[in-house]
Amino acid sequence: MENANVLQTASMHRRVLKLMGNRFEITVVSDDAAWAQERINDAIAEIQRIERLLTTFNEDSETNRINRYAGIMPVKVSAEIIALIQRATRISRLTQGAFDITYGAVNKSLWNFDTHMNALPDAATARKMVRLINFRNVIVDEAGGTVFLKEKGMRIGFGGIGKGYAAECAKSLLQRLGVTSGIVNAAGDLTVWGRQPDGQPWTVGIANPDQANRLFSSLQLSDMALATSGNYEKYVFINGKRYSHTIDPRTGLPVSGIKSVSILCPNAEIADALTTPVMIMGIRAGLDMINQINGIGCIIIDDNNQIFTSQNIRIK
Amino acid sequence: MKRISLTVLGLYVGMLAAFSQSDTDSTQYKRRKLTLEEANLISSYYHQDGNNAAVTGGIGSERLTDLSNSFELRLSKLDKKDRKHTFDIELGIDHYSSASSDKIDPKTVSSASSADTRLYPSLNWSVENKKGTTLGAGLSLSSEFDYKSIGINAMVAQKTRDKSGEFSLKLQAYLDQLKLILPVELRTGSNPEDEKDYPTASRNSFSASLSYSQIINQQLQVAFLTDVVYQHGYLGLPFHRIYFNDGSEGVENLPANRFKIPVGLRASYFAGDHLVLRGYYRYYHDSWGLDAHTASIEASVKLTPFFSVTPFYRYYTQNGVTYFAPFQAHDPGQEYYTSNYDLSAFHSHFFGAGFRVIPPHGVFGISHFNMLEVRYGRYEKSNSMQANIVSLNIRIK
């Protein structure tokens, strides 16, 4: 019997739209449809505000102004960007540099990663390509409110953290506006709070890395964020080994071994930021790190379809 | 009831062996001990730089420090033909104690019968394909001191093309062995010391259950249910005493075959978000001459998203079986006789209400304790039996 669904749709209000170049889905639980739609509008406005701060498509965004003056001079930016860079730097240190917002400096023309590639570049060439990637060269002056990239040609980008940050901000805003239950899904980086209208926790699925439109597992969640990163589409086989489009910022070489990483934690920004570094660090170092952080869960599927999880995941 | 339930929803792949590393993992990242601050990344994430106006409000660090320590992951697996397999392995253990079974033999108060432990492992498998056909089969075993049962079942279900209706057929067989433990005064010879000494009898039950459920519209769902049940073997109970009209005593004796046909109709009506009405009617007939009608109605009212009240009423009526007679009314010359009042003519009323709370942060703030239901019912049977029933249903995740 589908009783739950019949009751459910009546007070769940959902909108799907493209924001930050991705598919966002915002769900608000309320008895009042008009009020819920207004709150969804508020969340959209908040995400669009963040998009304007972080985009690299608009030359005048704060992010692009920092990049334009790389190696030249510090740039005055908003406190919000400074705080975001400081948090990103903490994650870079935590992940031994596997997470790095200066990843934007990868020379795309040098690294022709496409599906026709049949050999890896030699180590020296690869290294050269990532020489400008170094989070330690982002100089933040909190008191003066400025950010300076030390090397000319360096670029920062928030691709690895921005969607999670936007989801977290939208959720936070909705909660302050009185939305007690809802979901913000930023193209798979999602955060849920409260309960479904029937009082049950939300059921959240994780896609099967071999068939992205199928679920391989599901979880019952409340007040939790889940982010998944995988190399479902973009990968190549070289000498029988599968390489993903994700490049290790320390070596410049594509990473292999892992098909997908999912991170669970109460904060969508952290969940989003940690998926790619775990993929880069590998199962052993990645899970060892996750196991030491309180309140984070991690599910990894390797190239052989084996599941590895952090110690706090119980498979049912 | 303490129930250990282990659900394995399709084994996707080999289980986790978190550190049995494959050689594909050739990174230069090393395992290292995190600092305390790093380990508390989540709870300290914003404290560090509280100048982020967009995020510092709202979420509240209070919630972030209340981190859950484990997550439950449910796996599902589609096979090469896109079918979804489900396996359930259940191991139930019931430890129960019952006062009345001691009266079989007052000398054995501390024996296994005063506090039996039942073990009932079961294995069920089902597969559903994309066309909405489900096939399933199962096996169960149940064993207690005076009773052993083997159950086998097979089922098939088919959804209608628009998936709004489903037809199902389930065939079941239970092959039971029971020990004939007569009331102590009726045993002949010495009291058996060893349980192997009790005589045994078999009882086999076969049933075919047909059901059809249909979603009529968003508000109304109905289901038709019918069973055909055939039982063969020792159908009475060896410790049900009979006192005949000549003062002699025996145990009940009932025919070795029984054929039952219940036919039922169930309807659920979803009137808006906060009210669900459920109605049920069943007619029952069996070859011992028992006819019964059951009608029930309940309304589930959701007062808040987390609290609901469910008043209910059930009426039941049956005529008695022809073999029934009360205390000292049976003639010892009869072929079959029973004084079990469950087989006499009576009607009953059962009414009450259930109160259910599902707080978002758990009952009493305990997040694993996510549902509490208290149900009170008053049961009144026409042959002067009355009972007040309070049941507590809790769910712990």
TrEMBL record, chain A:
Keywords per UniProt: Coiled coil, FAD, Flavoprotein, Lipoprotein, Magnesium, Metal-binding, Transferase
Residues the record lists as binding Mg(2+): 160, 272, 276
Catalytic activity of the protein: L-threonyl-[protein] + FAD = FMN-L-threonyl-[protein] + AMP + H(+)
Keyword Lipoprotein listed: yes
Organism superkingdom: Bacteria
Positions in coiled-coil regions: 33-60
EC number, as in UniProt: 2.7.1.180
A GO molecular-function descriptor: transferase activity
Similarity annotation: Belongs to the ApbE family.
Name under which the protein is recorded: FAD:protein FMN transferase
Top-level taxonomy: Bacteria, Pseudomonadati, Bacteroidota, Chitinophagia, Chitinophagales
TrEMBL record, chain B:
UniProt entry keywords in alphabetical sequence: Signal
One Pfam assignment: DUF3570
Keyword Signal: yes
Position of the signal peptide: 1-20
InterPro entries, A to Z: DUF3570
Highest taxon in the source lineage: Bacteria
The protein's name in its UniProt record: DUF3570 domain-containing protein
Protein source organism: Chitinophaga rupis
